[in-house]
């Protein structure tokens, strides 16, 4: 009786000590700072269960514009950065905030527009010339205006066209300050041209009479990269778990999973990790 009472008391004490303490399984997760395009396209909904089933690691995604994702990661609010603005990613690593950067996958940007095509750009493969026509016609153009990877790419194209779109801000040029899906909704609602990544466009469910107007220009190439946040800068970064995710995404299995993801029979992302053959 005394022994049983002692064992029961010991069990109760241990239960009290460990109550409220997260188990290893509960703590086996990472935070990935990423973009709205990887989320809106449904890619993560497809990829992450495969990874979790294999490793037991839960991935919690914060989907914002690339600029904000980089700021969040720089502040230590994430373990992995998965975005699409290569110059900004390379600076992140050069500044010591990331361990290293690797190519993951690519697709392309397109400009979509209404059936009446007020700027006469439908069918063009010259995005710079198309932007000049849009500006000359003062045709409505909806921009994300949020420092995302798509917005950064858009601004580089306006610059190549020799145009400062901010001069038309509030008139023909509208900055939504929103993610890609929300900007597409705004653009289609106001009859505006919109530059979007193709994956989000394919997945977008409110197309109406909109079609891809401009595509196929090599400068519309859209590369994604992945970076482990530097644990020497932010000691709480789960470097081991984060590296497992990075390694899997870049592996043959992860790259094949990216290639396998399709919407309406269309492949949205094209893996191009140089480690994908291993």
Describe the fold and architecture.
The strands form two sheets. Strands 1, 2, 3, 4, 5, 6, 7, 8, 9 and 12 form a ten-stranded mixed sheet that branches. Strands 10-11 form a two-stranded antiparallel sheet. The protein is 41% helix and 23% strand. Strand 10 (262-263) and strand 11 form a beta hairpin. The chain is an alpha/beta fold. The protein is built from eleven helices and twelve strands.
**Number of DSSP helices?**
11
Ranges with pLDDT <50 over ≥5 residues?
5-24
CA-based gyration radius: 23 Å
Characterize the largest beta sheet: strand count, sense, and whether it forms a barrel.
Answer: 10 strands, mixed
Average pLDDT over all residues: 91
Please estimate the helix content: 40-55%
Structural class from helices and strands? alpha/beta
Q: What is the H/E string?
A: HEHHEHEHEHEHEHEHEEHHEEE
Distance between the termini: 61 Å
**Percentage of residues in DSSP E strands:** 15-25%
Give the overall shape, derived from the CA principal axes.
globular
- Quantity of strands, as a count: 12
SSE layout:
Layout: H1 2-18, E1 29-35, H2 36-40, H3 43-55, E2 58-64, H4 66-74, E3 80-83, H5 86-94, E4 98-113, H6 127-137, E5 141-143, H7 149-160, E6 173-175, H8 180-190, E7 193-197, H9 198-203, E8 211-214, E9 221-229, H10 239-250, H11 252-260, E10 262-263, E11 266-267, E12 270-271
Parallel strand pairs: 1-2, 1-3, 5-6, 5-7
Antiparallel strand pairs: 3-9, 4-7, 4-8, 4-9, 4-12, 10-11
Helix pairs in contact: 10-11
């Amino acid at each position: 009786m005394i022994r049983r009472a002692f064992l029961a008391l010991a069990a109760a004490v241990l239960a009290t000590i460990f109550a409220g303490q997260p188990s290893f399984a509960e703590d086996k997760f990472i935070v990935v700072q990423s973009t709205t395009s990887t989320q809106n396209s449904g890619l993560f909904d497809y990829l992450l269960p495969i990874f979790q089933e294999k490793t037991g690691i839960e991935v919690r995604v914060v989907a914002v514009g690339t600029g904000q994702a980089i700021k969040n990661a720089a502040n230590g609010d994430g373990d992995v950065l998965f975005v699409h603005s290569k110059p900004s990613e390379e600076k992140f690593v050069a500044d010591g905030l990331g361990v290293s950067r690797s190519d993951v996958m690519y697709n392309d940007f397109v400009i979509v527009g209404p059936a009446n095509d007020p700027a006469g750009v439908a069918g063009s493969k010259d995005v710079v010339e198309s932007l000049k026509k849009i500006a000359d016609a003062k045709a409505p153009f909806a921009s994300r205006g949020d420092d995302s990877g798509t917005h950064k790419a858009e601004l580089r194209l306006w610059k190549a066209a020799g145009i400062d779109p901010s001069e038309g801000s509030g008139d023909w040029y509208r900055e939504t300050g929103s993610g890609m899906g929300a900007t597409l909704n705004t653009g289609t609602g106001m009859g505006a041209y919109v530059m979007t990544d193709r994956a989000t466009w394919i997945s977008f469910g409110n197309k109406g009479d909109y079609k891809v107007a401009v595509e196929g220009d090599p400068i519309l190439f859209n590369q994604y990269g992945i970076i482990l946040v530097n644990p020497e800068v932010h000691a709480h970064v789960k470097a081991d778990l984060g590296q497992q995710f990075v390694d899997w995404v870049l592996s043959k299995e992860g790259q094949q999973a990216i290639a396998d993801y399709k919407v309406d029979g269309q492949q949205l992302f094209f893996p191009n990790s140089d480690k994908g053959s291993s």
